[in-house]
Amino acid sequence: MMIIMKASSTPQEVERVVDKIKSLGLAVHLSQGVEATIIGAIGETHSIPTDQFEVMDGVEVVQRITQPYKLASRQFHPENSIFSIDGFTVGGDEIAVIAGPCSVESRSQILETAHAVKEAGASALRGGVFKPRTSPYAFQGLGEEGLELLAEAREATGLPIVVEIMSQVQLDLMVKYVDVLQVGARNMQNFNLLRAVGETRTPVLLKRGLSATIEELLMSAEYVLAGGNKQVVLCERGIRTFETATRNTTDINAIPVLKGLTHLPVILDPSHSTGHYDYVAAVARAAVAAGADGIIVEVHPDPAHAVSDGRQSLKPEKFAAMVKQIGQIAQIMDRRLASAHGSYSPQGWA
Ligand code: PEP
Ligand code: MN
User: Fold this and answer.
1) Could you tell me if the CB of 208 is within 6 A of ligand 1?
2) Residue ranges near ligand 2 (ion) with Cβ within 5 Å
3) Residue 32 pLDDT
Protein backbone atom coordinates (compact mmCIF):
# COMPACT_ATOMS: atom_id res chain seq x y z
CA MET A 1 0.00 0.00 0.00
CA MET A 2 1.26 3.49 -0.83
CA ILE A 3 0.40 6.53 1.22
CA ILE A 4 1.06 9.62 -0.86
CA MET A 5 1.52 12.70 1.30
CA LYS A 6 0.33 16.21 0.39
CA ALA A 7 3.07 18.58 -0.79
CA SER A 8 2.23 20.69 2.27
CA SER A 9 2.51 17.83 4.76
CA THR A 10 4.76 18.35 7.77
CA PRO A 11 7.52 16.02 9.04
CA GLN A 12 5.31 15.32 12.09
CA GLU A 13 2.45 14.19 9.84
CA VAL A 14 4.82 11.90 7.94
CA GLU A 15 6.06 10.50 11.26
CA ARG A 16 2.53 9.79 12.46
CA VAL A 17 1.79 7.80 9.30
CA VAL A 18 5.07 5.89 9.72
CA ASP A 19 4.19 5.04 13.33
CA LYS A 20 0.74 3.88 12.32
CA ILE A 21 2.21 1.54 9.68
CA LYS A 22 4.64 0.09 12.22
CA SER A 23 1.86 -0.41 14.76
CA LEU A 24 0.06 -2.58 12.19
CA GLY A 25 3.13 -4.86 11.99
CA LEU A 26 4.10 -3.69 8.49
CA ALA A 27 7.46 -2.57 7.12
CA VAL A 28 7.91 1.10 6.15
CA HIS A 29 9.68 2.33 3.04
CA LEU A 30 9.97 6.05 2.76
CA SER A 31 10.54 7.54 -0.67
CA GLN A 32 11.16 11.26 -0.57
CA GLY A 33 11.06 12.27 -4.24
CA VAL A 34 11.18 15.73 -5.78
CA GLU A 35 7.49 15.64 -6.55
CA ALA A 36 6.08 13.89 -3.51
CA THR A 37 6.71 11.92 -0.34
CA ILE A 38 5.47 8.39 -0.77
CA ILE A 39 5.29 6.08 2.22
CA GLY A 40 5.15 2.38 1.39
CA ALA A 41 3.46 0.00 3.82
CA ILE A 42 4.89 -3.39 2.91
CA GLY A 43 3.48 -6.71 4.09
CA GLU A 44 0.05 -8.29 4.33
CA THR A 45 -1.99 -5.17 3.65
CA HIS A 46 -5.01 -6.79 1.97
CA SER A 47 -7.16 -6.82 5.09
CA ILE A 48 -6.28 -3.25 6.10
CA PRO A 49 -8.85 -0.68 4.87
CA THR A 50 -7.26 2.30 3.12
CA ASP A 51 -9.41 4.74 5.09
CA GLN A 52 -7.30 4.04 8.19
CA PHE A 53 -4.73 6.27 6.47
CA GLU A 54 -6.99 8.42 4.31
CA VAL A 55 -8.34 10.17 7.41
CA MET A 56 -4.89 11.12 8.70
CA ASP A 57 -3.60 14.69 8.45
CA GLY A 58 -1.24 15.37 5.57
CA VAL A 59 -2.36 12.36 3.52
CA GLU A 60 -3.24 13.14 -0.10
CA VAL A 61 -4.27 9.70 -1.34
CA VAL A 62 -3.83 6.01 -0.54
CA GLN A 63 -3.24 3.52 -3.33
CA ARG A 64 -2.82 -0.22 -3.38
CA ILE A 65 0.15 -1.46 -5.42
CA THR A 66 -1.38 -3.78 -7.95
CA GLN A 67 1.79 -5.70 -8.87
CA PRO A 68 3.10 -8.56 -6.68
CA TYR A 69 6.46 -6.76 -6.44
CA LYS A 70 6.28 -3.55 -4.47
CA LEU A 71 9.65 -1.96 -3.81
CA ALA A 72 10.75 -2.73 -7.38
CA SER A 73 7.65 -1.21 -8.94
CA ARG A 74 7.61 2.14 -10.68
CA GLN A 75 4.22 2.77 -9.15
CA PHE A 76 5.90 2.86 -5.73
CA HIS A 77 8.98 4.77 -6.90
CA PRO A 78 8.13 6.80 -10.04
CA GLU A 79 11.61 8.30 -10.63
CA ASN A 80 14.47 6.26 -12.05
CA SER A 81 16.83 4.90 -9.41
CA ILE A 82 20.34 6.13 -10.11
CA PHE A 83 23.29 4.52 -8.32
CA SER A 84 26.90 5.62 -8.14
CA ILE A 85 29.36 2.83 -8.67
CA ASP A 86 32.86 4.05 -7.98
CA GLY A 87 33.31 6.70 -10.66
CA PHE A 88 30.17 6.36 -12.77
CA THR A 89 26.41 6.20 -12.41
CA VAL A 90 23.90 3.72 -13.66
CA GLY A 91 20.22 4.39 -14.26
CA GLY A 92 20.56 8.08 -15.22
CA ASP A 93 21.94 9.70 -18.36
CA GLU A 94 25.08 7.58 -18.44
CA ILE A 95 25.34 4.27 -20.28
CA ALA A 96 27.45 1.80 -18.28
CA VAL A 97 29.85 -0.41 -20.20
CA ILE A 98 31.00 -3.39 -18.13
CA ALA A 99 33.56 -5.54 -19.93
CA GLY A 100 36.06 -8.29 -19.31
CA PRO A 101 36.60 -12.01 -19.62
CA CYS A 102 34.06 -14.68 -18.74
CA SER A 103 36.63 -16.16 -16.31
CA VAL A 104 39.73 -14.74 -14.71
CA GLU A 105 42.42 -17.10 -15.99
CA SER A 106 45.81 -15.60 -15.14
CA ARG A 107 47.48 -12.38 -14.02
CA SER A 108 48.58 -11.46 -17.53
CA GLN A 109 45.15 -12.23 -19.04
CA ILE A 110 43.18 -10.08 -16.60
CA LEU A 111 45.66 -7.19 -16.57
CA GLU A 112 45.89 -7.09 -20.35
CA THR A 113 42.12 -7.20 -20.68
CA ALA A 114 41.58 -4.57 -17.99
CA HIS A 115 43.95 -2.11 -19.68
CA ALA A 116 42.42 -2.79 -23.11
CA VAL A 117 38.81 -2.31 -22.03
CA LYS A 118 39.68 0.81 -20.07
CA GLU A 119 41.46 2.24 -23.11
CA ALA A 120 38.37 1.50 -25.21
CA GLY A 121 36.14 3.37 -22.74
CA ALA A 122 34.71 0.72 -20.39
CA SER A 123 33.33 1.92 -17.09
CA ALA A 124 33.83 -1.32 -15.12
CA LEU A 125 35.69 -4.63 -15.33
CA ARG A 126 33.94 -8.00 -15.18
CA GLY A 127 35.53 -11.38 -14.51
CA GLY A 128 34.26 -14.63 -13.02
CA VAL A 129 36.15 -16.48 -10.30
CA PHE A 130 33.39 -18.90 -9.25
CA LYS A 131 31.93 -20.23 -12.49
CA PRO A 132 28.50 -21.84 -12.85
CA ARG A 133 29.54 -24.50 -15.39
CA THR A 134 27.11 -27.00 -16.85
CA SER A 135 29.72 -29.75 -16.39
CA PRO A 136 31.35 -30.39 -13.01
CA TYR A 137 34.52 -31.33 -14.93
CA ALA A 138 34.82 -27.94 -16.66
CA PHE A 139 37.01 -25.12 -15.25
CA GLN A 140 35.32 -23.88 -12.07
CA GLY A 141 37.22 -20.60 -11.58
CA LEU A 142 40.29 -19.43 -9.64
CA GLY A 143 38.40 -18.51 -6.46
CA GLU A 144 40.16 -16.14 -4.08
CA GLU A 145 43.31 -16.05 -6.23
CA GLY A 146 41.11 -14.65 -9.01
CA LEU A 147 39.74 -11.98 -6.65
CA GLU A 148 43.31 -10.94 -5.79
CA LEU A 149 44.06 -10.60 -9.50
CA LEU A 150 40.92 -8.56 -10.10
CA ALA A 151 41.82 -6.28 -7.19
CA GLU A 152 45.23 -5.77 -8.79
CA ALA A 153 43.59 -4.95 -12.13
CA ARG A 154 41.31 -2.44 -10.38
CA GLU A 155 44.34 -0.86 -8.72
CA ALA A 156 46.10 -0.61 -12.09
CA THR A 157 43.17 0.81 -14.07
CA GLY A 158 40.77 2.39 -11.56
CA LEU A 159 37.94 0.28 -12.97
CA PRO A 160 35.47 -1.07 -10.37
CA ILE A 161 35.01 -4.84 -10.50
CA VAL A 162 31.86 -6.89 -11.11
CA VAL A 163 32.07 -10.53 -10.03
CA GLU A 164 29.53 -13.36 -9.84
CA ILE A 165 28.66 -14.84 -6.46
CA MET A 166 27.33 -18.41 -6.58
CA SER A 167 26.58 -19.12 -2.95
CA GLN A 168 26.10 -17.27 0.31
CA VAL A 169 29.13 -19.08 1.74
CA GLN A 170 31.22 -16.87 -0.59
CA LEU A 171 29.66 -13.66 0.66
CA ASP A 172 32.18 -12.55 3.30
CA LEU A 173 35.04 -13.10 0.89
CA MET A 174 33.28 -11.42 -2.02
CA VAL A 175 32.26 -8.23 -0.22
CA LYS A 176 35.89 -7.72 0.81
CA TYR A 177 36.92 -7.48 -2.82
CA VAL A 178 34.12 -6.63 -5.23
CA ASP A 179 32.31 -3.42 -6.16
CA VAL A 180 29.28 -5.14 -7.65
CA LEU A 181 27.96 -8.62 -6.78
CA GLN A 182 26.63 -10.40 -9.85
CA VAL A 183 23.88 -12.96 -9.28
CA GLY A 184 23.88 -15.14 -12.38
CA ALA A 185 21.02 -16.51 -14.43
CA ARG A 186 21.20 -19.93 -12.76
CA ASN A 187 20.84 -18.38 -9.33
CA MET A 188 18.12 -15.87 -10.12
CA GLN A 189 15.70 -17.81 -7.95
CA ASN A 190 18.17 -18.89 -5.28
CA PHE A 191 16.14 -17.09 -2.66
CA ASN A 192 18.63 -17.70 0.16
CA LEU A 193 21.37 -16.09 -1.91
CA LEU A 194 19.08 -13.19 -2.82
CA ARG A 195 18.29 -12.61 0.84
CA ALA A 196 21.98 -12.77 1.70
CA VAL A 197 23.02 -10.18 -0.89
CA GLY A 198 20.04 -8.09 0.21
CA GLU A 199 21.62 -7.86 3.66
CA THR A 200 24.76 -6.25 2.19
CA ARG A 201 25.08 -2.70 0.89
CA THR A 202 27.12 -3.76 -2.14
CA PRO A 203 25.34 -3.10 -5.45
CA VAL A 204 23.84 -6.21 -7.07
CA LEU A 205 23.70 -7.05 -10.77
CA LEU A 206 20.81 -9.51 -11.07
CA LYS A 207 20.64 -11.51 -14.29
CA ARG A 208 17.41 -12.88 -15.66
CA GLY A 209 17.05 -16.66 -15.33
CA LEU A 210 17.29 -18.87 -18.41
CA SER A 211 13.54 -19.44 -18.49
CA ALA A 212 12.32 -16.75 -16.15
CA THR A 213 9.52 -14.33 -16.92
CA ILE A 214 9.96 -10.60 -16.44
CA GLU A 215 7.67 -10.77 -13.42
CA GLU A 216 9.81 -13.51 -11.87
CA LEU A 217 12.91 -11.37 -12.41
CA LEU A 218 11.22 -8.47 -10.63
CA MET A 219 10.11 -10.73 -7.77
CA SER A 220 13.75 -11.80 -7.36
CA ALA A 221 14.83 -8.15 -7.28
CA GLU A 222 12.17 -7.64 -4.60
CA TYR A 223 13.98 -10.17 -2.36
CA VAL A 224 17.15 -8.07 -2.51
CA LEU A 225 15.29 -4.77 -2.02
CA ALA A 226 13.30 -6.19 0.90
CA GLY A 227 16.59 -6.78 2.72
CA GLY A 228 17.32 -3.07 2.49
CA ASN A 229 19.81 -3.17 -0.38
CA LYS A 230 18.39 -0.62 -2.80
CA GLN A 231 21.12 -0.90 -5.42
CA VAL A 232 19.87 -3.55 -7.81
CA VAL A 233 20.65 -3.46 -11.53
CA LEU A 234 18.64 -5.85 -13.70
CA CYS A 235 20.20 -7.66 -16.64
CA GLU A 236 18.53 -9.21 -19.67
CA ARG A 237 20.89 -11.98 -20.83
CA GLY A 238 18.76 -13.92 -23.30
CA ILE A 239 16.15 -16.57 -22.67
CA ARG A 240 15.60 -20.11 -23.89
CA THR A 241 13.33 -20.45 -26.88
CA PHE A 242 12.88 -23.05 -29.66
CA GLU A 243 15.53 -21.20 -31.70
CA THR A 244 18.91 -22.95 -31.91
CA ALA A 245 20.80 -20.61 -34.27
CA THR A 246 21.99 -18.62 -31.27
CA ARG A 247 22.83 -19.73 -27.72
CA ASN A 248 19.83 -17.83 -26.32
CA THR A 249 17.25 -15.43 -27.72
CA THR A 250 17.76 -11.79 -26.79
CA ASP A 251 14.48 -10.53 -25.42
CA ILE A 252 14.92 -6.94 -26.57
CA ASN A 253 11.30 -6.30 -25.55
CA ALA A 254 12.36 -6.82 -21.94
CA ILE A 255 14.21 -3.48 -22.02
CA PRO A 256 11.21 -1.17 -22.58
CA VAL A 257 8.91 -3.48 -20.62
CA LEU A 258 11.19 -3.43 -17.57
CA LYS A 259 11.81 0.30 -17.88
CA GLY A 260 8.05 0.79 -17.70
CA LEU A 261 7.46 -1.55 -14.77
CA THR A 262 10.41 -0.67 -12.56
CA HIS A 263 12.59 2.25 -11.52
CA LEU A 264 15.66 0.01 -11.35
CA PRO A 265 18.41 0.34 -13.98
CA VAL A 266 18.27 -2.26 -16.77
CA ILE A 267 21.27 -3.46 -18.75
CA LEU A 268 21.76 -6.10 -21.44
CA ASP A 269 24.36 -8.85 -21.90
CA PRO A 270 24.74 -9.41 -25.66
CA SER A 271 27.48 -12.02 -25.11
CA HIS A 272 25.36 -14.61 -23.33
CA SER A 273 22.18 -13.61 -25.16
CA THR A 274 23.70 -14.41 -28.56
CA GLY A 275 26.55 -16.81 -27.74
CA HIS A 276 28.61 -15.68 -30.74
CA TYR A 277 31.10 -12.82 -31.07
CA ASP A 278 29.80 -11.97 -34.54
CA TYR A 279 26.39 -10.95 -33.20
CA VAL A 280 27.48 -9.14 -30.06
CA ALA A 281 27.96 -5.62 -31.46
CA ALA A 282 24.64 -5.64 -33.33
CA VAL A 283 22.69 -6.64 -30.23
CA ALA A 284 24.64 -4.23 -28.01
CA ARG A 285 23.69 -1.38 -30.36
CA ALA A 286 20.07 -2.53 -30.27
CA ALA A 287 20.14 -2.56 -26.46
CA VAL A 288 21.22 1.07 -26.19
CA ALA A 289 18.74 2.09 -28.88
CA ALA A 290 15.99 0.27 -26.95
CA GLY A 291 16.74 2.31 -23.83
CA ALA A 292 19.06 0.05 -21.83
CA ASP A 293 21.13 1.73 -19.13
CA GLY A 294 24.21 -0.23 -20.07
CA ILE A 295 25.73 -3.42 -21.38
CA ILE A 296 27.93 -6.17 -19.95
CA VAL A 297 30.19 -7.74 -22.54
CA GLU A 298 32.77 -10.53 -22.57
CA VAL A 299 36.17 -9.46 -23.90
CA HIS A 300 39.26 -11.69 -24.11
CA PRO A 301 42.71 -10.97 -25.58
CA ASP A 302 42.84 -14.46 -27.10
CA PRO A 303 39.30 -15.85 -27.41
CA ALA A 304 40.47 -19.01 -29.21
CA HIS A 305 42.24 -20.09 -26.04
CA ALA A 306 39.74 -18.81 -23.47
CA VAL A 307 38.86 -21.38 -20.80
CA SER A 308 35.18 -20.42 -20.99
CA ASP A 309 32.90 -18.63 -23.46
CA GLY A 310 35.62 -17.91 -26.03
CA ARG A 311 33.12 -18.15 -28.88
CA GLN A 312 31.15 -15.18 -27.60
CA SER A 313 34.12 -13.09 -26.45
CA LEU A 314 35.21 -10.01 -28.38
CA LYS A 315 38.84 -9.25 -29.11
CA PRO A 316 39.80 -5.84 -27.66
CA GLU A 317 39.86 -4.15 -31.11
CA LYS A 318 36.32 -5.30 -31.90
CA PHE A 319 35.21 -4.17 -28.46
CA ALA A 320 36.72 -0.71 -28.98
CA ALA A 321 34.92 -0.31 -32.32
CA MET A 322 31.66 -1.36 -30.72
CA VAL A 323 32.04 1.13 -27.85
CA LYS A 324 32.44 3.96 -30.38
CA GLN A 325 29.20 2.96 -32.09
CA ILE A 326 27.39 2.74 -28.79
CA GLY A 327 28.67 6.19 -27.87
CA GLN A 328 27.06 7.56 -31.03
CA ILE A 329 23.76 5.81 -30.37
CA ALA A 330 23.86 7.12 -26.79
CA GLN A 331 24.06 10.67 -28.14
CA ILE A 332 20.97 10.16 -30.28
CA MET A 333 19.23 9.03 -27.10
CA ASP A 334 20.40 12.20 -25.26
CA ARG A 335 22.70 10.08 -23.15
CA ARG A 336 26.45 9.52 -22.91
CA LEU A 337 28.77 6.69 -22.08
CA ALA A 338 29.84 6.40 -18.47
CA SER A 339 33.55 6.22 -18.21
CA ALA A 340 36.36 6.60 -15.76
CA HIS A 341 38.27 7.68 -18.85
CA GLY A 342 36.60 10.96 -19.75
CA SER A 343 33.59 11.61 -21.91
CA TYR A 344 32.84 10.34 -25.35
CA SER A 345 32.43 12.57 -28.41
CA PRO A 346 32.00 11.39 -32.00
CA GLN A 347 35.73 12.15 -32.50
CA GLY A 348 36.66 9.71 -29.75
CA TRP A 349 37.46 9.81 -26.06
CA ALA A 350 38.28 13.21 -24.58
C1 PEP B 1 28.58 -14.88 -16.93
O2 PEP B 1 28.30 -13.67 -16.84
O3 PEP B 1 29.71 -15.31 -17.20
C4 PEP B 1 27.47 -15.86 -16.78
C5 PEP B 1 27.68 -17.10 -16.35
O6 PEP B 1 26.28 -15.32 -17.14
P7 PEP B 1 24.79 -15.92 -17.01
O8 PEP B 1 24.55 -16.10 -15.54
O9 PEP B 1 23.94 -14.87 -17.64
O10 PEP B 1 24.76 -17.22 -17.77
MN1 MN C 1 30.39 -16.27 -19.57
Assistant:
1) no
2) 102, 309
3) 82
pLDDT attached to residue 83: 94
Whole-number Å distance between alpha carbons of 235 and 220: 12
In whole angstroms, what is the distance from residue 190 CA to residue 164 CA?
Answer: 13
- 126 to 179, 180, 198: CA distances (angstroms): 10, 9, 21
pTM: 0.94
Q: What is the pLDDT of residue 256?
A: 98
Distance CA 21, CA 25 (A): 7
The answer on 268 and 136 residing in a single domain is: yes
CA distances from 289 to 30, 183, 293 (A): 33, 25, 10
Q: Are 48 and 147 in a shared domain? A: no
* Structural domain containing residue 148: 83-343
pLDDT of residue 178: 98
| In a domain? residue 252 | yes
In order of 2, 222, 343, the CA distances from 225 in angstroms are 16, 5, 32
Helix boundaries (H) for 39-159: 51-54, 107-120, 144-157
Q: In the chain, which stretches have pLDDT less than 70? A: 340-350
Q: Which ligand is nearest to the CA of 312?
A: 2
The answer, yes or no, to whether any atom of ligand 1 lies below 6 A from the CB of 184, is: yes
